[in-house]
Amino acid sequence: MIALSLAEVAAAVDGRLVAADPAATVTGPVEFDSRKVGPGSLFVAFPGEKVDGHDYASAAMSAGAVAVLGTREVPGVPMVLVTDALTAMGRLARAVVDRLPGLTVIGLTGSSGKTTTKDLIGQLTARLGPTVAPPGSFNNELGHPHTALRAGPDTRYLVLEKGSRGVGHVRYLCEIVPPRISVVLNVGTSHIGEFGSQETIAVAKGELVEALPPDGLAVLNADDPRVDAMASRTRARVVRYGEAPDADVRAEDVTLDDRGRGSYTLVTPEGSAPVRLGLTGRHQVSNTLAAAAVARELGMPLAELATALGELGLVSTRRMDVFDRPDGVTVIDDSYNANPASMSAALKALASLGQGRRTVAVLGYMAELGPFERDGHAEVGQLAAELGVDRLLVVGEPAASIHEGATAVGNWGGESVLLTDQAAAVEVLRGELRPGDVVLVKGSRYRTWEVADALRADATSGNGATA
Ligand SMILES: Nc1ncnc2c1ncn2[C@@H]1O[C@H](COP(=O)(O)OP(=O)(O)OP(=O)(O)O)[C@@H](O)[C@H]1O
Ligand SMILES: [Mg+2]
Description:
The structure is a single chain. With about 475 residues, this protein is an alpha/beta fold. It is about 35% helix and about 20% strand. It is built from 16 helices and 22 strands. The protein has helices at about 5-15, 55-60, 85-100, 115-125, 145-150, 170-175, 190-195, 200-210, 225-230, 285-295, 300-310, 340-355, 375-385, 400-405, 420-430, 445-460, and strands spanning about 5, 15-20, 25, 30, 40-45, 65-70, 80, 105-110, 130, 155-160, 180-185, 215-220, 235-240, 250-255, 260-270, 270-280, 320-325, 330-335, 360-365, 390-395, 415-420, 440. The chain has a 9-stranded mixed β-sheet with strand order 9-10-8-11-12-13-14-15-16, with helices on both faces. It has a 6-stranded mixed β-sheet with strand order 17-18-22-19-20-21, with helices on both faces. Helix 4 packs parallel to helix 10 (about 285-295), helix 10 (about 285-295) packs antiparallel against helix 11 (about 300-310) and helix 13 crosses helix 14 (about 400-405). The radius of gyration is 24 Å and the shape is globular. The N and C termini lie far apart (about 55 Å). The structure holds adenosine-5'-triphosphate and magnesium ion (MG). Magnesium ion binds near residues 139 and 161.
């Protein structure tokens, strides 16, 4: 971050200094985990239900913190006292980005692929200048300011994922860090239980382009009608990307290789160039086009852009992470999270990788689908069967509708089983996997991580497949 005196910090967050030297300087980072605090840090103490950050105030000071931002005094500790630490962190982030005129803020939202595409954009902008786009999914009212506070005087590009679970959330995140470029990827059904309908999700995601200034840029997915329609909700210029023939930045002649990696002709107003991706999944065509539209806006020449797209790699874990085990089994670890759209994307990737090989899908529960829960799961099972997945392991009773959806497909030649938990899935896999198999592991977070981890560990522990 940039250096701020405690007096400036207090002014930015509307706080009161207690036992603190107003001239003492915070140089960052701003941390809410005392173990991450170092010299120059500001420690933010949150009054948690189980753990109260104020109890760690002294430890943070010993680790080098300049002061503690919190909601109650801690004897002997220099404090910036506020009424709400989360709001204060947001205001501090705003104060920092406001003091960085050379910074371009790129915000992105969508139902699926935010972290993936944030990582893609970050890799492209890093070729153009110092970039802050840390791995992971820091997309809420805590992670967002925490990430923004990493920007310093040298930072040229700040790439921020903006998550939302309701109307007004993205708008709030944009008040903390106003974007100059806003990218909207898609409007799916994740968190639809909280939103109520896809129309409401579109309203909520569109807040990202409403927040743009007139000289900003909205990068919109022309292939998603709900996203395309957001053009009318912004004062900024609009660039449309996708495979639609009239998209400004588009992919033509898309093909996939036997690893599910896309190749296409990138067509832009400046001309066209061949692109060959190293990333697995048809959906990466769309994500890379979004990233290309941003890099093009920031001045990356077409030839360099085409090369750079081909060199993009994975940054955050458990997203379309394809690896080959020494025993000849290929694993697609996509276990970070799941919703119907990302399940569909992942199953299609499995199908394209699995041509001529036996395919196994280990699928877990998709959280937060509300009233769409039953149908959402059943449709995923149906798709798995229609794509011809050979073996389906459905993990956990809450995901049972996946099993039902698959077995309801009359002419499916594969086989599905509903298992009680992850350990049971690992056991079945250890018994059944043979060299050459391709396994997809996917579900909502911790519910399937263990399976992916076990498959990874088995590769080196002698538990691998035998012919
Ligand atoms: N454009 C896309 N369309 C559909 N599915 C996608 C797309 N991009 C990525 N995915 C799938 O979504 C999964 C989650 O990706 P990612 O973590 O990037 O999404 P996210 O939007 O950041 O999710 P979260 O809301 O949990 O932060 C990936 O593992 C992949 O299967
Ligand atoms: Mg994310």
